Amino acid sequence: MAQTISVNGTPHNAPEDPRVTLLDFLRQDVGLTGTKKGCDHGQCGACTVIVNGVRINSCLTLAAMHDGDEVTTIEGLGTPDEPSALQNAFVEHDGYQCGYCTPGQICSATAMLSEIANGWPSDASEDLESGIEISGEEIRERMSGNLCRCGAYANIVAAIRDVAEQSA
Amino acid sequence: MRPFSYARARTLNDAAQTVADDGTMAIAGGTNLLDLMKLQVETPSQLADINRIGFAEIEDTDDGGLSIGALATNTETAVHPRVRADYPVLSRAILAGATQQLRNKATNGGNLCQRTRCYYFMNIDQPCNKREPGSGCGAIDGIAKLHAVLGTSDQCIATYPGDMAVALSALDAQVQIATSDGDSRTVPVRDFHCLPGDTPWRENVLEAGEIITAITLPAPVGGTQLYRKVRERSSYAFALVSVAAIVEIEDGRFSRADLAFGGVAHKPWHDPRIAEALIGKAPSPELFDKAADILLEDAQGFGENDFKIPLARRTLHAVLEQATEAAA
Amino acid sequence: MTVHCKQDKPDEANRLDQMKQGVIGKPLPRVEGLAKVTGTATYAAEYPADNCAQGVLVTSTITRGKVTSIDKDAALAMPGVIAVIDDQRLTTRAAQGTADEAPQQQPKTVCYWGQPIALVVAETFEQARDAAKHLTVDYHVEEGVPLDPDAVEPEEQEDETVHQGDLAHAMSEAAHSVDVTYTTRGHASAAMEPHAAIAQWDGDKLTVYASLQMLNYNISELADALDMEEDDIRLVSRFVGGGFGSKLGISEEAVAAALAAKELGRPVRVVMSRQQVFQCIMRRSETTQRLRLCTDANGTLTGFGHEALVSNLPGEEFAEPVLQSSHFLYGGENRELMLKVARIHRMTAGSVRAPGEAVGMPALEAAMDVLAEEAGIGPVELRLKNIPEKNPEEGLPFSSHKLAECLQQGAEAFGWDHGPRKPRQTREGEWWVGTGMASAARVHNVSEAKARVTLKADGTAVVETDMTDIGTGTYTILAQLAGEMLGLSPDHVLVDLGDTQHPRGPGSGGSWGAASIGSAVYVACTAIREELASRLGVEEPDLNLSDGKAASGKSIADILDGKDLAREGHYEPGEIADDYTASGFGAFFAQVRVNRFTGETRVDRMLGAFGFGRVLNHTTARSQCLGGITWSIGVALTEALEFDPRDGHLVNPDLAEYHVPVHRDVPDLDVIMVEERDPAASPIQAKGIGELGMCGGAAAIANAIYNASGARVFDFPMTPDRVLAAMPD
After folding, report:
1. What's the sign of the alpha-carbon dihedral C502, C506, C507, C513?
2. Do C663 and A87 touch (CB under 8 A)?
3. Which CATH number describes the domain made up of C2-41+448-572?
4. In chain C, positions 691-720, which contact chain B (CB-CB < 8 Å)?
5. How many separate domains does chain B show?
6. Residue B180: pLDDT above 90?
7. Which of C428, C515, C549, C652 is deepest in the core (most CB within 10 A)?
8. pTM of model > 0.95
9. Is the ipTM of this complex over 0.95?
């Protein structure tokens, strides 16, 4: 039985070679190059996608392991004609420079906002049990898995705060 | 990656039989294994995907403790209401490790088996007794900043890099293991990891074909629970030194002092003599120093990591001072 | 029609300020923004190519010697493997910036551990990567090669040497003096996009999609490596996922892809692994720097000494230009400057963001803090007191100079306490809190540049050049510049970059991109304006264009009467470069906390004030400053390449162990742009800003560490071990 992986709502057959990572599957087999390969070792976050609602590094998982899973990539969050609120905010706040880490930052931030809404604490949370107050420090800690070498962090945080505060 | 065959195990039995084969490895979160497979540090000929065999529940145990499935993710564990309420040191340790993306994928069983970050281990064109027995240790006379100061051998000075297990050691958690013959056994976390000795390739007590099924936590112990991780970046870096502490002070004296240390050895370091030295005594800088003396009695640096010895002492001070203040 | 402009005199006309569209300098969002945030911007490895094979570089496991044999047959027997390329034209290092010729070739000669020696090509990436790792290579190893920069006799870079007056005497006579030595570790550019190329041939014509900063030089480097004519090569780099110097020159994967594609008769993609990017592109050299500074009783510098030791491979011309801004930042009549290079067999040293000042300024500015304390003068005051009127070595005037304003405005905005300074005055819980400051300086350069501007019959415009946008904002500023000059909304200007089919730009590097290519676009637009003015029968200065219309109300489309109007602007720096010392200046202010137990340092807040001529886009210029300050945090606290002492290999070639700052390391940052017009900098009065933001910032943090905790650390980065070692009990 062929394995199928749903990418942005469209089913795709899993690759034959089990070595193919979810990242290479998306970029090469599915042809969605918005998900970036920055390090291929889970050290930069450029490949962040959302699988079954949870953000992960797509470079450190095999496509074959995602039979039946729902994968959302940057292309599934919005398009140039219909960008998401976060995508718009990144443009407005100049939350990027070269743009290579940007899809990962945005996928990560999208999932992060639900994590905060779910009350998941972080290393920056004062209290593990009470709700999470959105702050610069909370956002920074939670986004620390997404490196930006251009150094756009301050603007990225501003963009995320903007959206978080609007939706709060 | 070397070519391998991939099979999804449906049951524990299925998985146990497969991983008993030579060259077969179980894959769960995969965040450490695939990293190492890409570097060809790990070269399994077959992967058994154990993600869908169950064992992902987090549930109460009969004695009031908590059983944490080996295949529950680090995130599910850290955010679980009972872990947050009753075992905050564990939540804190997990949240101090890696990144949200990695924690969302990494499983508890996999995290216990996480391999060292020694530079020489991760580079197959360099010598490493752990990766290639008999090839020598690149780190001892090389770059050893990350490396161990306790329990080293002339074969290997690598550290266990994780955070979660350090908290589990302080909590005296137990590892539940399914054996290849369908039976099970329990090993305290404190005994799960090995020192390098003459067998640095052996990092833990798992035998071929064994699979971790759960980690059990004792009934809540209360106290002040802290996890302190010293690292070079403010997030997303391995520990230079970390301390997990469960401390209680009654009538101005320590009544509990369960401490474990990360970043200093090939395993989460737990020395029962430290609690013995602290319990019944009133907190003071001199007492903290005495605890540090015990901890570091046999500590040995390798040049670049000499700093870990004073750093461990100072971090222990910081944690005990913070715990004392919190208890006051 | 090409219009040439060689700038020999300051341009005081400030023509841009007289235009009517009102878009230059405005904080417009990037024109390519939506493409970047939706994942639809295409980077080098992402171009579709039918039947593309995948190549993976094979790298040496020895430091020095010869490849004696490669077992190709065994590799070719592996599944999917179609070629093992070990052609002598393979390049073994990245070209240095502006090299204009092929870098070292001859892959059988190994000069450093991790050097590319071959390429394995297979049908799939996994097949190629596996085979590359399994290729059996035999070597003849040369033993005893130098690896330690402190253990060899270094070569003096004589053009950097300055002996002026008698520094030793000045030091001995001075009221206050410091003689301190700093070290900095190697740095990596670590751009997020790994180096990648797709090569495809159409007969003898080669197209390479690559991730490169300077196509104008890269095309000749590639042509030289392949022994081809430039006209037969097309290079495309429309989006570049960060460069920071690492993509200045053509790198190994592009030549390898081209050779493999030729041999196989099909397209080949080669993407470097992250480890390869670390190991075989460029490192910033480690440095050892001795600073000797002395003043009279009033705190006026009487002596200035800065000597530096850096390293590189034998034969490499690049030497980290540590002293670049030290030559002119402060006065002091007795001067001793010297740069030496140790020849060692670590990977190639080359440009990493702000070569020179990125490490020279932190050492100088940390030493200035020691001097301020020694002399009992406020650190801001010490700097204000020692700003020279003219370049203290060459006597040249400065093209413009905003250091004093930056110091003053920065101090004001930061809330700098000008009172007496003593360390360890503020403690919050476990943390010592303190402040520090430093000056910023970065030499300004411009470079020859060409751009074609076409005013289309429909009243829109197109700007074409092979200039790149590496995240700096080139697409946007050129749309603004052409829009300003031609009276068009920037969204009516299409900017087409990163393709060598277009006129040669200056390339992105050395912070010269914006001023240089902006000037070429300015020249082209001025020529178009002259033609439009002549058609309307007015003088060009009297031509008022805005929103697609002349002041008379006649639309540009009507003036063009159905025909496109194109001009190529050719800008060249002229003799003015010899008449002035041109530099960006600035000041950094930082507040940090240092943990009294662990020596961990966190930056609480940081501010930079910068003067760099005309601001072309407030948003993208500010972002460049933010990026520079972020790099300053890395230089100060976390970034260090570590090399094995026995074989010189880079032991931390990845983003887990080479610590670029993460989100949590970077607090809210403030940027003040002290805007000015620098008439001698460029015809558009702009200077570079891509690098200035990191030239000295690390010293503000170092000085704050001392002020907070009393730990005077002399080694960058100031990791917990080093802070603890220097911390008083």
Report:
1. negative
2. no
3. 3.30.365.10
4. 719-720
5. 3
6. no
7. C515
8. yes
9. yes
